[in-house]
Amino acid sequence: MAVRTDHASLRQVGLTSTPLLLAGIGFELLFAAVLICVPPVQHVFGTAGLPPDVLGIIAAFPFIVWGTDELRRWHRRRTAPG
Predict the structure, then answer these.
(1) Which of 20, 27, 54, 71 could staple 50 via S-S, CB 3.0–4.6 A?
(2) Contacts by residues 18-26 (CB-CB < 8 Å, ≥ 24 positions apart)
């Protein structure tokens, strides 16, 4: 999502402006959930579900990355020549 533009914020570009990218992200999340949570698949790939406290920590990371990227873009817009 972050590489779609170098200066504009996500609010300006729009979250749904690239539906194919959103579909790919959705598929990736679904596939990862199946690998991690479905017992027969867990047995084949040797995976296990994460504890809730770890999931809570991991859930914060996309927002941290998005926020820092938005700050970088804001800074670039403010310091851009012209």
Answers:
(1) 54
(2) 25/1
Single-letter amino acid, residue 72? R
Q: What residues contact 34, with CB distance under 8 A and at least 6 apart? A: 41
Say if residues 16 and 25 touch (Cβ distance below 8 Å): no
Element (H, E) at 13: helix 10-13
Q: What is the pTM of this model?
A: 0.65
- Encode pLDDT of 53-81 as tens digits: 999 999 999 899 988 988 988 888 888 77
Cβ neighbours around 37 below 10 Å, total: 13
